[in-house]
Amino acid sequence: MAKARKLFTIGYEQTPAKAVLDELQRAGVKLLVDVRAIASSRRPGFSKTQLAAGLDERGIGYVHLRGLGTPKDGREAARGGDMKALSKIYHAHLKTPQARAEMDELETLVIKAGPVCILCYERDHNACHRKFIAEIIENRDGAKIENLVAPQF
User: Fold this and answer.
1) CATH topology of domain 6-147
2) For residues 103 and 139, is the Cβ–Cβ distance under 8 A?
């Protein structure tokens, strides 16, 4: 029987970059897939270029799949704690051609480049769209989902 693939998820809210990178390395992640619509951050180390450089120093690849990011109204719903609205908005977004293509790309990466971890801002995966992405990949491919949480310093 083939070994089940793993898909990790992680959020960086209230966590320093070093702690996130350490956690990814500890878990054996080979590729980080950034699923933020906008890959910039006020938090040091989490803007696209800085993040990719920090990952590269640890032998971890980086891919940004912007089309899997949450649209602005979905981000506003998440900030307001309205997961029902986020779910509705995000699932509608997933029907767009770019999101469908990038979900297929993510599935291929999980199969061929794993172990893969998807990253977004929210610390709690239950308050983030990455939960929906992980569930889709789990249903499509049978991947086992593991939600990583880096220590806060």
Assistant:
1) Cobalt-precorrin-4 Transmethylase; domain 1 (3.40.1010)
2) no
